[in-house]
Specification:
alpha+beta; 5 strands; 130 residues; Anti-sigma-factor_SerPK; binds adenosine-5'-triphosphate; serine/threonine-protein kinase; Histidine kinase/HSP90-like ATPase domain-containing protein; binds magnesium ion; 5-stranded antiparallel β-sheet; globular
Amino acid sequence: MWFPPEPEQVRRVRAYVEDCLTRWGLLDRFPVEAVSLVATELFGNALKHGKPDGRPLLVVARWRGETFRVEVDDYNPQGPVLAWATDQDPEGRGLLLVDALCARWGHLPKRPGGKFVYADIPALGPEAER
Ligand SMILES: Nc1ncnc2c1ncn2[C@@H]1O[C@H](COP(=O)(O)OP(=O)(O)OP(=O)(O)O)[C@@H](O)[C@H]1O
Ligand SMILES: [Mg+2]
């Protein structure tokens, strides 16, 4: 789904991934809050670091087996890197959260001058399902 590159859209991005989980019958199989948080952070990073120029940003939700993937396009070919924020840094921890919540994440080039960032959220284990 395409979203205008505006902070106000974060609410809609969260609603989109939650709607995918609902429609695909996955609410019991994946951690909804974690999926929403990851989508929020990737979309926020696309706004903050993805060289937005007014064109809409593509957010894709994919599900295969034990993995729910969120992808966000942007217009900066350079990839994200884990920052090591110190006590003095008010920001720079978003990807650390993504890293903690996801089985893997990364980026792949997409069309000249752009990329998409993906993050794979693993399914809940049997204990969490009870
Ligand atoms: N989509 C992106 N494109 C290019 N660089 C990115 C992207 N996302 C993150 N980065 C780089 O990775 C760094 C770490 O990202 P992270 O999300 O942890 O921090 P932040 O976005 O700067 O701060 P916060 O998430 O706390 O608002 C960023 O400072 C930026 O340099
Ligand atoms: Mg961030």
